[in-house]
């Protein structure tokens, strides 16, 4: 991940995201008992703070120091640890989290699926992986180096799960929130899976 590029993006605007938690996270975790959560690519912290207010202990990770400083200004009631790290280079702790939330994080395909496997390994037995991204039909190559085929979609992740996982949801659905200005994303692709062993 290019931390410098992400820092520049956050510096360029007072607020990049809405400040509201992602709708997929809210819908898919409301029935989970709070435990330890990993918020991958936490940005300005809305998801981490929402989880913290519901009793979760959250490790919120991002490569952008600017985003993390902004996020740390929210009231996490001491339940959020803000961590500057690149989970694509250094995997999180194995089996440490009851929830690993990957919301619209640009996880690029890599040799041996190492970065993805690191995130899967971070889910504790009985824990949940929640992986959401923009639906493939809403993504197009931009001619400037972005090709959607270079990034994991929930279907890709589901195919890599071994029999120790139970896939509860693997679907594409309409977004439940207004589309951000300047974008054309109208659908989300969502994977929710539980590590059963």
UniProtKB/TrEMBL annotation:
GO terms for biological process: antibiotic biosynthetic process. Keywords: Transferase. The keyword Cell inner membrane does not apply. Transmembrane segments: none annotated. It holds the Pfam family Methyltransf_25. SUPFAM superfamilies: S-adenosyl-L-methionine-dependent methyltransferases. Residues 38-127 form the Methyltransferase domain. InterPro entries: Methyltransf_25, SAM-dependent_MTases_sf. Gene3D superfamilies: Vaccinia Virus protein VP39. One of its GO terms (molecular function) is methyltransferase activity. Signal peptide: none annotated. PANTHER family: PUTATIVE (AFU_ORTHOLOGUE AFUA_2G14390)-RELATED, TRANS-ACONITATE 2-METHYLTRANSFERASE-RELATED. This is Methyltransferase domain-containing protein. It comes from Embleya hyalina.
